[in-house]
Design a protein that fits this description.
Elements: H1 14-48, H2 52-80, H3 82-102, H4 106-134, H5 138-149, H6 151-168, H7 174-177, H8 179-193, H9 208-231, H10 236-258, H11 274-302, H12 307-312, H13 315-335, H14 337-355, H15 364-391, H16 399-436, H17 442-468, H18 484-489, H19 508-522
Helix pairs in contact: 1-2, 1-4, 1-6, 1-8, 2-3, 2-4, 2-9, 2-16, 2-19, 3-4, 3-8, 4-16, 5-13, 5-15, 9-10, 9-16, 11-14, 11-15, 11-16, 11-17, 13-14, 13-15, 14-15, 14-17, 15-16, 16-17, 16-19
């Protein structure tokens, strides 16, 4: 049943705007953490005497638990209350940040990062599902998603700049301590602005086998994708891990089909356009995330940028994403979400193909900035369109699950993209060093690898446009009506999404190591 009456604007009220700001801050924590920690990695390695292998797990470990617990976190938000899950996730995130800041050993610091990922996996789907259930007015929802769309690039750039200042000033531990006051603000705001929700789950009908199978399957899958660039796609260990993940996920699907109250109702995929939106996010995010990764490497390794200035170089991209999100928000009710996503992916592909021509003797102004700006316009449009399409028509009792699906799609896309494109870049660099040694320089080989990876990233965006053409052309129709009980208990809104700018570069150290090894082998 769809509501036909026009709902009043909650976003126009002071309470609505405060809640939107509050949950934007909660979302900002996740995106900020990714880039701020990456910037401090060299300092952490020097002071804590990390090995290269263990240093990588400061970022890979976070991604592992974040991706592994997302689906469980999203469904738990539906069953146990969104405010409750967001508060629990924020508390866990804050406590683990404190533990990371005071850690005195490699093991403790990596362990704290693993727990941080779990906290973020609880926060993200809870926040997005609050948005989708608390903004029944479709204009409010589109505007809120538009505001949110500027958060990932803003947090990414701010994280790089702040991380450089903190690591070079008071010390690397402050990249974790800086989270604490923000967590306190979020927790106080949650209990002041949001009303509690009833617990919809009981211990007797909770799908424990489904929770175990889904979490274990996701953990093994993300672990395999993160480690594949290190040990090789054809290695027996990688094949065994991927096979194990497949077995666990198939068992999970079989379990859900047989349960009377499944953790993951497969009927959610009957919602028109949801599966296509999630699939588009996987492919597009694989491309966008990898572009940031390789262009950052190019600016630092080839153009000689310091980390601080490499972060500052993305400020125009932040502005471009903000402009594209604002324009897309205005156009969406007129032309529909399908046109927004398809146009965004093709525009993004144009920018990526421009970047795929980067030369060894290039400059930021001539070879990087134009492509980044064009890609930013596409990125902003895709983000608004996909987030809207993935949550359109989702009933309130499945809002957390839908939020977890689109967030998991982003995480899976980022991990998959880095795994694939890192292998392409490394292979191209290795072949050039071997075929042209000793005439090929390290910088020429590195740049050739980056160009190959960027070219395939552009192809991925074109493929994403084809998938996006199958999404429902949502124009902002009313969302399913809330029941009387749900309407009484839900009072607020929030927003979050998935996407990443300069973020979770867990393969950064890995690719640099691989590229160094190829040079050694060639010599």
């Amino acid at each position: 049943m769809y509501a036909t009456a026009t709902r009043p604007s909650f976003l126009a009220t002071r309470r609505g705007r405060l809640i939107l700001a509050l949950v934007c801050v909660a979302a900002f924590l996740d995106f900020l953490d990714a880039s701020i920690v990456n910037t401090a990695l060299p300092t952490i390695r020097g002071q804590m005497h990390f090995s290269i292998q263990n240093l990588q797990w400061l970022v890979s470990g976070y991604l592992l638990t974040y991706g592994g617990f997302l689906l469980l976190g999203g469904r738990a938000a539906d069953l146990f209350g969104r405010r409750r899950l967001l508060a629990a996730g924020t508390s866990l995130f804050g406590l683990s940040s404190l533990a990371a800041g005071v850690a005195g050993s490699e093991g403790l610091l990596i362990g704290a990062r693993l727990v941080q990922g779990v906290g973020a996996a609880m926060m993200t789907p809870a926040a997005l599902s609050i948005l989708t259930t608390s903004f029944p007015n479709h204009d409010d929802r589109i505007k809120a998603i538009g505001v949110w769309s500027g958060m990932p690039p803003l947090a990414g750039v701010f994280g790089v700049l702040l991380g450089g200042l903190l690591a070079g000033g008071p010390g690397w531990r402050w990249v974790f301590f800086v989270n604490l006051p923000v967590c306190v603000v979020v927790l106080v705001g949650l209990f002041v602005l949001l009303r509690p929700e009833p617990n919809q789950a009981s211990a007797t009908d909770f799908d424990a086998p489904g929770a175990i199978l889904s979490t274990a399957g996701a953990l093994v899958l993300v672990f395999a994708l993160v480690n594949a660039p290190n040990i090789g796609w054809g290695d027996a260990r990688t094949i065994a891990e991927l096979a194990g993940a497949l077995i666990l996920l198939v068992a999970f699907v079989v379990n859900e089909q047989r349960r009377r109250n499944p953790l993951f109702p497969l009927s959610i995929f009957r919602i028109r356009g949801l599966a296509a939106a999630d699939a588009t996010q996987v492919i597009a995010q694989a491309a966008f995330y990898s572009v940031f990764f390789f262009i950052t490497l190019y600016m630092q390794s080839v153009l000689g940028f310091k980390p601080f200035w490499a972060g500052a170089a993305y400020i125009p991209l932040t502005l471009g994403v903000g402009v594209a999100a604002a324009v897309s928000t205005q156009l969406l009710p007129r032309i529909g979400v399908r046109s927004i996503i398809v146009t965004g992916t093709l525009l993004g592909a144009s920018g990526v193909f421009w970047l795929s021509r980067i030369p060894v003797q290039g400059t930021y102004a001539a070879n990087v900035l134009p492509g980044l700006v064009v890609m930013a316009l596409g990125f902003g449009a895709v983000f608004v369109g996909v987030q809207t399409a993935a949550n359109a028509g989702v009933p309130p009792d499945k809002a957390g699950l839908a939020a977890a699906l689109i967030t998991a799609s982003s995480t899976l896309g980022a991990a998959l993209g880095l795994a694939i494109f890192s292998a392409i870049a490394t292979s191209t660099t290795h072949q050039m060093l071997v075929a042209h040694a000793p005439h090929a320089s390290q910088l020429e080989a590195l740049t050739a690898g980056f160009r190959s990876a960027l070219t395939v990233s552009g192809v991925f965006l074109i493929a994403a446009a084809g998938i996006a053409a199958r999404t429902t052309n949502f124009r902002g129709q009313p969302v399913p009506s809330l029941s009387q009980e749900t309407s009484a208990t839900l009072s607020a809104d929030a927003l979050l999404g998935s996407g990443v700018v300069l973020g979770r570069g867990e393969a950064l150290v890995t690719v640099q190591r691989h590229l160094g090894e190829t040079k050694h082998d060639a010599q």
